[in-house]
Amino acid sequence: MSDAGSSFPDADGQTLLEGFARVVAVEGGRAWLEPEETTSCGTCHSAGLCSIGKDAGNAKRMAAKRFQLPGDLGLKVGERVVVGISETALVKGAATAYGLPLIALLAGGILGQEFYATDGMAALGAFGGLVVGLGLARLLADGLSARGVLTPRFLRRDYHLPPDAACTSDHG
Amino acid sequence: MEHYLLLFISAALVSNVVLMRFLGLCSFMGVTTRVDTALGMGAATTFCITISAMIDWGVEKVLLEPYELGYLRTVAFILVIAAAVQFTEAVVRKVSPTMFQMLGIYLPLITTNCAVLGVNLLLVEGKMNFIESTVFAFASSLGYSLVMVLFAGLRERLALCAVPRLFAGPPIGFITASLLALAFMGFSGMSTN
After folding, report:
1. Count of domains forming chain A
2. Residue A4 has pLDDT above 50, yes or no
3. What is the domain range of residue A17?
4. pTM score, two decimals?
5. Which of A27, B34, B45, B192 is deepest in the core (most CB within 10 A)?
6. Is B134 close to A85, i.e. CB distance below 8 A?
7. Is position A33 within any domain?
8. How far is the alpha carbon of B142 from chain A, nearest alpha carbon, in Å?
9. Which sequence ranges are marked TM in the entry (chain A) (predicted)?
10. Whole-number pLDDT of residue A153
11. More confident residue, B133 or B188
């Protein structure tokens, strides 16, 4: 999801991370969106105009990031919208996708080393742990997706680009 | 087990990759304006550093060391890091396409992060075995993530403060980073590498 550079609490009191996305298709009233990719500098509010961001993604890569919004929101193809996802979803996502496989990898490696005391068995244990961890991560991710934890929410239509929409990145 | 714990503390806190070894400073300043971007970048980097360290250990022991190809180390390691980043991207996309939307943005930045190559070269210098290398790489990258998130939290607070015009932006960021480095010096002596 592209970074709109802002976060606001929603009605439930959860802080939402906002991002821009564009409607690329509407099927049965439900909109398919493609996130606007930018660099992850987080310093720039002009996500749609950032030339670095446009270079960073290609069509195939962007197509892989398409997502569907639940419900009929009356969106039209080409509209630019602001979507949000809760901060806790990002933490849960990172812990599931990266944390779980790494913990399993380390556990497998240490067990291999402790029981057989050879680098080969430690490497084999680590690889086995990684595979198991990835399997568990997939199961957990499916569970989170089914509960809608990872689904971005529609927040509002984005009608206006900021008049001073130039890249203002202030880091080297 | 105590040995691994000491190695972990040493790599994560005492010899912190950012504040003590001065690696990964570009992303440290560039991706720490918000906590969520710092967290995403830190998590992705932790995964890639650990995976690339495992593979690089194998490359060193199977190819570079036996055939005395040490002069190819940097090139070989960069190749492995690029492959590890691609592997991570594929894995995250497979595990959950929705997560890929959230976390995938940080992955291409890792290839050019000098902390990744730096940690892998430190492993060779340390002459560690496989599991020590993996624990060291994991702990180093966790230390990197910890510092990224801490610094991002400080910068989010600084953004709300009335900072004098001359210090606004990167200058106050560098001053804050130096104070954070001083704080981390408090860990010196806890464990040696």
Report:
1. 2
2. no
3. 7-87+150-157
4. 0.78
5. B45
6. no
7. yes
8. 10
9. 95-116, 122-141
10. 79
11. B133
